[in-house]
Recover the amino acids of this structure.
């Protein structure tokens, strides 16, 4: 995201006063750069370490969200080929798990940044660092929620498949009548690709909200490393 680059540049310029630390011109604008490795105190080092970890996760999560949207629009979950369907579900599950795990780990770093802010003796850094951590945490929480929502969609698909399998098993038993009703015919309709497309549309609505949180974090990052 473009705001991620803005955040990266702000972090780098605020925390790297040494002229020896220069940006890599070959770096892509699509990714964040870490805070430079020149600090004036242990507190600044702690801020940079925690922030770098959270930022790295947030950027990786942004990329994962983009991949998930693309996959949701291209995967064929209604395929008559069982292998194709299973592979598509596994791919989405992996992305969802990675996204949620990464976001949960990043949230821990934001918690630590708030602790540093609370204990800081610099009033500017105290206020700005907390606002920065809150905003970045907001973006990360939205990413975590996307991972959870994706896992929920996959769980609904698995539940629907399990129910259909039970009905089919009973239907083929000679000693029982199949408990089918008109509503059960819904299990015969291909609906998973539509679910995936609807999910992709919802995810796309979350992207500007994540960008907004990242933009707010960028507005306060200089103050967050005030005096470093």
């Amino acid at each position: 995201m473009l705001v991620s680059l803005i955040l990266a540049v702000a972090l780098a310029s605020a925390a790297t006063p040494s002229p020896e630390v220069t940006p890599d011109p070959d770096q892509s604008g699509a990714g964040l750069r870490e805070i430079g490795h020149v600090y004036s105190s242990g507190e600044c080092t702690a801020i940079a370490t925690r922030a770098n970890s959270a930022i790295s996760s947030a950027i990786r999560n942004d990329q994962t969200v983009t991949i998930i949207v693309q996959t949701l629009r291209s995967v064929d979950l209604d395929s008559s080929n069982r292998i194709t369907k299973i592979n598509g579900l596994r791919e989405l599950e992996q992305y969802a798990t990675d996204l949620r795990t990464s976001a949960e780990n990043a949230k821990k770093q934001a918690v630590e940044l708030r602790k540093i802010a609370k204990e800081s003796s610099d009033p500017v850094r105290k206020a700005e660092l907390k606002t920065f951590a809150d905003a970045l945490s907001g973006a990360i929480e939205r990413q975590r929620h996307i991972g959870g929502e994706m896992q929920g969609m996959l769980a609904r698909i698995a539940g629907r498949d399990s129910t259909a399998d039970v009905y089919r098993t009973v239907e083929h038993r000679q000693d029982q009548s199949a408990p089918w009703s008109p509503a059960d015919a819904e299990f015969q309709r291909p609906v998973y690709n539509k679910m995936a497309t609807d999910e992709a549309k919802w995810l796309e609505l979350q992207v500007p909200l994540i960008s907004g949180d990242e933009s707010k974090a960028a507005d306060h990052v200089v103050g967050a490393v005030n005096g470093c």
Remarks:
- The chain has one domain: 2-74+91-154+191-224.
- Helices lie at 2-15, 42-74, 82-119, 123-171, 192-224.
- Residues 1-33 have pLDDT under 50 and may be disordered.
